[in-house]
Amino acid sequence: MRLVLALVAVAVAVFAVSGCSALQNASKSDTAKSKVGDCINVIEGSATDSKTAPVDCSDQKAVYKVAAVADKKTDCKEEQTSYEETLNGGTTAFLCLSPNFKKGSCYNESQTTGYKFVACTAPEASFKVIDRIDGQADEFACDPSTAIGFRIVPDPKTTFCLGNPKG
Questions:
Q1: For 97-109, how does the pLDDT look when each residue is reduced to its tens digit (9 = 90+)?
Q2: Distance between first and last Cα of the chain
Q3: 55 and 42 Cβ atoms separated by less than 8 Å
Q4: Which DSSP symbol is given to 76?
Q5: Under a CB-based contact definition with an 8 Å cutoff, are residues 148 and 162 in contact?
Q6: Rounded to two decimals, what is the model's pTM?
Q7: Helix H segments across the chain?
Q8: How far apart are CA 95 and CA 33, in angstroms?
Q9: Contact call for residues 161 and 142 (beta carbons, < 8 A)
Q10: d(Cα 74, Cα 116) in Å, to the nearest integer?
Q11: How many CB atoms lie within 10 A of CB 148?
Q12: What 3-state DSSP class applies to 95?
């Protein structure tokens, strides 16, 4: 199952200067300045103006890990979502993001806003990660007696076994 989503943040500038990369970099959000391997939290997902923040990858709220960084739109891998930041109609940052779920944590999944960390008791909790298997990208690694679904990340190989958040 592919989640088609683009988290988009719009930077607004009160000055009109184009072509200055130093200016563009200064106007980027902390998320847009992320490097490959950094992690981000989706505070509020949106198809047009997401609220995100960089976090330590060990944090429960580190929902995504940055897999690729570009200064223009690019194609992300099938299991990834994208984050785009624009300024005056042009792309200033484009990130490809892979899921970075934590075992025992719950998440909300939305076709329009992607994944977001939530409490397992929250009514919007879509699934709980009952197992995270690093080094394997194999849906059959999940125990069928407890898993109701899975997510696979091929690079780096990771299998997330999903269960009922209320279970």
A1: 999 999 999 999 9
A2: 23
A3: no
A4: P
A5: yes
A6: 0.78
A7: 21-27
A8: 10
A9: yes
A10: 23
A11: 14
A12: strand
